[in-house]
Amino acid sequence: MDNERIDHIIDKHHSEPSSLIQVLLEIQAENHWLPREALERVAERLQVPKTRIQHIATFYKAFSLVPKGRHEIHICVGTACHVRGATRVLDTVQDLTGIKPGETDLDLKFSLQTVNCLGCCALGPVMDVDGKTHGKMAPSKTAEVLKNYE
Amino acid sequence: MSEILLQIDGKEIRAKEGTTLLEAARSAGISIPTLCYHEKLEPFGGCRICLVELEMRGWTRLVVSCVYLVEQNLVVRTRSEKIDRIRKMILELLLAHAPDAFDLQDLAKEYGANRDRFEKEASFCIHCGLCVRYCAEVKKKNAVGFVDRGIRKEISFIPEIASRECWTCKECFPLCPTEALQAAYVLVEALAFPKSSSESASGNKEGDRPRI
Amino acid sequence: MNSRIMARINSPEELEKVRQEILSRRDPNTPCISICAGAGCIASGAGEVITAFKAEIEKQGLQADVDTKETGCPGFCERGPVVVIYPEEICYLQVKPEDVSEIVSQTIKEKKVIDRLVYVDPTTGEKAPRESDIPFYKNQERNIIGSNIKINPKSIEDYLAIGGYSALAKVLSGMTSEHVLEEVKKANLRGRGGGGFPAGSKWEGSRNAPGEIKYVIVNADEGDPGAFMDRALLEGNPHSILEGLTIGAYAIGSHEGYIYVRQEYPLAVENVNIAIKKAEEYGFLGKNILGSGFDFTVKVHQGAGAFVCGESTALMTALEGRAGEPRPKYIRSNIVGLWGRPSVLNNVETWANVPLIINKGADWFTQFGTERSKGTKIFSLVGKINNTGLVEVPMGITLRDIIFKIGGGIPGGKRFKAVQTGGPSGGCIPEELLDLQVGFDELTKAGSMMGSGGMIVMDEDTCMVDISRYFLDFLTDESCGKCVPCREGMRQMLKILNNITQGKGREGDIELLEELSETAIEASLCALGKSSPNPLLSTLRYFRDEYEAHIKGKKCPALSCKELIAYHIDPNKCQACMICLKKCPAEAIEGGKNRIHVIDEEKCTKCGTCFEVCPSRFGAVKKISGEPVPPPIPEEARTIVRESKQK
Chain A closest CA to C67's CA: distance in Å? Predict the structure, then answer.
């Protein structure tokens, strides 16, 4: 991500140090991950210590310090989905993709992450792929859904 | 600043407004154990071992004395069955990480903490935060910071800053109760310091750095 | 939705003029198709339904005569996409794009009800075509959430049409800030986010605290998994929150407000940002609101995925652009809060109650609820329940009524086991307490708490030991890690519970768990740590026998914990249909046509697929726990001899 783009985002927030998390969220949304150079630029322009950025980028689940796959799979493991069997859905997806939550496969095709409640509990268990919510999931249905993604 | 009158362990104590219970107790010769407290740093309230019992209007309440400010007519107890039980548990939880840490041994003996109560954990950092806070608040270099949260929390040096600043400083080293800090420094030095250290600001050359 | 660009409204009188003008343009007899566009229904396909309606209306040339409206979430999420046709209030459920042309032709043009799309009572078979007749809605008191289906959240005119901003106008045209505060105190509005702290007292503390600069904050982090009330309110009626917040700001003397929204709710973020822009355009935010001389601006701040940021001091730390670690403060944040200044932080639902209290008065508000818990509360009823969704009920209603009368009971004929309230800080309430009257203090006394309103229903298949392990797993991930009792205490508690659910539990485990719980409760830095043992302690209180079965008998009575169960095909019931054999992802089932299937326990990964897919008329797959799996029957005995079809 080039500095011009980053500067534009920072300027939108008036270079305020307290907007650090909002700035990083925008970079994450556009770029799908936070490259080191981007973080250095942010540290410089917002005048915040690198340790603070290091802490924030690892403390909050929304951020990734490594490139993500083409398709991001989020499996909801909130209580309502858990009670309806989300663990078994997660296990099956782990087997199918070969990766664990927080990981990306070697082809950079899928990234897997657990999420703690998307607020669609009536459809539980819920699996979100690239922002599209797939509800009423079961272990036997996961292969069908993931087959559609290249 | 007005003067506050309070009672700690039965002793009548005078303290200036804005003093913490810990400072007030210590200046009266009453000892309260601490692990994450340092007089040059803002109180952290992380280790919880400095907990004391407050009595107000018939209720007892546990507060950390390094943060709680003195109040008029407060009644404070620094030891009780409950406090001792909790301090013992805190020590046992920390001993699982750093069973041989020098700073924990005397306290462990005093409170009867069993170093083998819990299975040993891989990391011997006890997260007192002294290194991170000292570097941020006193040296203002921010060379070391926290990473992640919860049970995955760790400390980590910023390689570019550490390679420039730490060799000639190392003021945080003696603060670490378990020497996890020194280990973290050695690790980041081995793995991540920029290659041409001969250009570092302190003028050190590659060969100047003795082995630890 | 076309709304004209308005000049700023400069007085309460002008507002009334504008409102009347809007209403005069709207004929209440014009058919209006309201389609829920909340996140849940959108995930069920409401987007396609909306597109289909728009296309069909155009195709039939009805644009001038029929309105379509994409609305906020009315709460009947189990049966979404939900469509309500006004003015008759005909409610259609689980609508698909294929149903749309029929709806337009039959219901809109011919005023005929389409039976297959209306609600049918599962026991009596009675149909309830009108929204207000549906038992799910009928038994609620929908003072707040009832507005959602009537408005398009992206339209400020819709909000004005239902009386929006009249409370703010009332406040700014003659109520002193003391008067506003008194009304909120009189209403006894207690925080809806979990603490149940009296909002009036909180506001009063900030009002009287020294300092010129004060803040009001909306906590829309809604971190409790399974709770989505705030999502529905913020997505579905964002102006009501803004109105409540502005009134609160006026009461305490604040001119700057923040809305902290979790980033996992992109639609809520979008809608509240649109609402703020519109409110600024119309003059409900900004300088000299409605000509009163009162200034107030609001900023939206997104969360970044941390449950602990729902805790008020952590939230304020996050607003300051730092990692959300709570602060060990003994001075409340309404006195020393954001940037060290007096800050009133309240939950979304708390703020949503404020315009109601001002418009209808504290006396009206206090007629709902119990002595110490006034008003209504929105609960998210989820888990093993027939009517999953959001329910708004007066405090004092029994758990039984919520779960069975409104919720429709447990699906699949299973037995109710427990209801979990209060999220990870709460506890499980068993069957014997189902007649408990819902209220802040009552739930706390039962070993749980109100929390933000998540109500997770569990049945006989839910393992209570696994539930407490689940919450500890959640909390060890979400803990900020600063203090020892929470970080280290929960680390060890999770280890023990993992062992117990894997059959490695030992004598003394429960006692150690209780000791670690005491340390966490007494010595943790913040409410997350202090309440972290609640799920464990409440399940121990009511389901201790399950813990003992796991530890002593290596048995999971609910047949849930993977390491303690085995799947077994009953040779007497297996009809060799080959469905499980083909679907088994581990290829662990041996058998064939007319050959009884047998599970190879070594290969079995306990995924449960065979159990899921075995046709219910056979019911041959069983789960076994606490006893050895019967050995496979000999090869020779596996052939099924079918009776010949011709006699």
Answer: 27
Contact A104, A68 (CB under 8 A): yes
Phi, psi of A74 (to 5 degrees): -115, 125
Residue of B46, B68, B93 with shortest CB distance to C492: B93
Q: Which of B168, B169, B143, B167 is nearest to B157 (CA)?
A: B143
Q: Is the pLDDT of residue C4 over 70?
A: no
**Structure pTM?**
0.93
State whether residue C476 sits within 8 Å of chain B by CB: yes
* C-alpha pair distances (Å), C342 with each of B56, B91, C73, C297, C349: 25, 37, 34, 17, 21
Chain A contact set for C324 (CB, 8 A): 59-60
All domains of chain C, ordered by start, with CATH? 31-138 (3.40.30.10), 161-365 (3.40.50.11540), 376-459 (3.10.20.600), 464-552 (1.20.1440.230), 562-638 (3.30.70.20)
Q: Taking CA atoms, what residue in A is nearest to C265? A: A118
CA–CA distance, C110 with C85 (Å, rounded to integer): 13
Please tell me what DSSP assigns to residue C398. B
Catalogue the E-assigned strands of C303-440.
343-347, 376-383, 389-394, 416-421, 427-430
The nearest alpha carbon in chain B to C494 belongs to: B151
Chain A residues within 8 A of C457 when measuring between CB atoms: 83
pLDDT interval class at C607 (50, 70, 90)? confident
Give the C-alpha separation, C141 to C376, whole Å. Answer: 7
Residue A58: which of B132, B147, B158 has the nearest Cβ?
Answer: B147
Inter-chain residue contact C488 with B96, CB threshold 8 Å:
yes
Whole-angstrom distance, CA of residue C194 vs CA of residue C189? 13
- A44-79 residue pLDDT tens: 999 999 999 999 999 999 999 999 998 999 999 999
Q: Which CATH number fits domain B3-111: 3.10.20.740, 3.20.20.140, 3.40.50.1820, 3.40.50.300?
A: 3.10.20.740
Does the distance separating the beta carbons of A117 and C78 come in below 8 Å? no
- Report CB contact under 8 Å: A51, B132: yes
HSE toward the beta carbon, residue B77, CA cutoff 13 A: 13
Burial class of residue A107 in the structure, from the number of CB atoms within 10 Å of its CB (0-12 exposed, 13-18 middle, 19+ buried): exposed
Q: Do A79 and C478 make contact, defined as CB atoms within 8 angstroms?
A: no
Can you name the CATH fold of A71-147?
Answer: Glutaredoxin (3.40.30)
pLDDT digits (tens, 9 = 90+) for B146-177: 999 999 999 999 999 999 999 899 999 999 99
Cβ contacts (< 8 Å) between A50 and chain B: which residues?
A: 142, 145, 158, 160-161
Under 8 Å CB-to-CB from C610, ≥6 apart: which residues?
C567, C569, C580, C583, C584, C589, C599, C621
How many Å lie between the alpha carbon of C561 and the closest alpha carbon of chain A?
11
Instruction: Establish if A55 touches chain C: CB-CB under 8 angstroms.
Output: yes
**Among C115, C471, C625, C529, which residue's Cα sits nearest to residue A83?**
C471
Report CA-CA distances (Å) from C97 to B46, B178, C104, C113, C134. 56, 65, 12, 17, 23
Contact in structure between C323 and A59 (CB atoms under 8 Å): yes
* A121 pLDDT higher than 90: no
Q: Where are the domains of chain A?
A: 3-59, 71-147
Domain positions in chain B are 3-111, 130-208
Q: What's the token pair of residue C494?
A: 């999770």
Contact A52/B at CB under 8 A: yes
